[in-house]
Amino acid sequence: MTAFRMSLRPTRRSRPRLRGPLAAILVAAGLGLGLVGCSAPQPEPTASPSPTLPPGVAPLRGTPVDPAASEHPSLAVKIDNHPAARPQIGLESADLVFEELVEGGLTRYAAIWHSDMPAEVGPVRSIRPMDPEILSSFGGIVAYSGGQPQFVDAMKATPLLNVIFDEDATGLFVRAEDRDSPHDLVLAADETVRLHSDLAEPRAQFDYADGGEDTTAVLAGDPTATIVTRFSEAGGRAWDWDPAAGYLRSQDGAADLDTTGTQLRATNILVLRVEVDRSGEVPRTILTGSGEAWVSTGGSTMPATWFKDGPAAPIRLADAAGATIELAPGNTWIELVPADGGSVELVP
Questions:
Q1: pTM to 2 decimals?
Q2: 167 by DSSP, 3-state: which?
Q3: Is the pLDDT of residue 35 over 80?
Q4: pLDDT digit string (tens) for 152-183?
């Protein structure tokens, strides 16, 4: 698999590896932690068209794939992250997972599947005001349980096909008998995609290196054993680097497991520091413009700047010189940590 990817573009293993005194870095606002160490660079923004990956590369993972097997739309689903909703169904198969702040200091996921479509996903919850900005660049399908009318209308105004439990007449949603309401709504994911297989496959969102040893963070970052993020005072989550398994996820001090009892894991962790509009009863993450970011791959982390020109534009990750950062082929979790009231700690 690595050899296949390396044949697509020249390797850059000869690039010098930069090392700096990256001690524990705390980035916070509203939790009384302050800023310790150097802040992320702010390069001049440049145009950010969708990355162009070669044929035979999964657009949302950067891994080898049979081109015919990827000719279907992506499926984005709003997934519950209340303690009563864990373990979630199918989350381990997602290509990309965005974690976002919702009311009460809790978080929910906007998860996107394309490369590995499970039979079922859930628990499915309602749409939130930031989701059009997060999901519009993917196209394809978005599924959710419902939501406030103004949020539903905003989601319906995007290019995505909306599949909504409150309006479903196809039987794609079912209630799981072994879960308590409202944490019991499950979507037939593969059937949903099959019914709408005429929709286009998603555009690539990120750039990928030939392999894990060639990523920008590994070549230019600093060793990081653990990434701890807090979206509020309600609880936290951590990612621990394991060379054999990747980044292993914990929540509220316990391993975060899938339905088979295996700890959730990721190849890449992106922490984006974002503004949150709290003027309404539901907080709204703002994911257009630019801000500080941290990119973690292969046990190393580097500071970055994120750019997103508009709802339909992909996220661009740039280093201090303004060059695009390349991730490792594999799945990615994106932590949308509030600049006001959230924090991230990088533990060497």
A1: 0.88
A2: helix
A3: no
A4: 999 999 999 999 999 988 899 999 999 999 99
Closest CA to 132 of 103, 102, 162, 107: 162
- State yes or no: pLDDT of 34 exceeds 90: no
SS3 call for 79: strand
Q: Identify the DSSP state of 319.
A: -
Cross-strand partners of 338: 274
Neighbours of 124 (CB within 10 A): 27
Structure tokens at 171: 């039987």
Distance CA 155, CA 129 (A): 8
Residue-wise pLDDT for 93-131, tens only, equals 999 999 999 998 999 999 999 999 999 999 999 999 999
Question: What separation in angstroms does the CA of 333 have from each of 92, 111, 267, 306?
Answer: 11, 9, 8, 15
Task: Give 67: exposed, middle or buried? Use CB within 10 Å, 0-12, 13-18, 19+.
Answer: exposed
Largest CA distance in the chain: 58
252: DSSP letter: T
The CA distance from 191 to 308, in Å, is 32
Amino acid at 40: A
Q: How far apart are CA 91 and CA 260, in angstroms?
A: 11
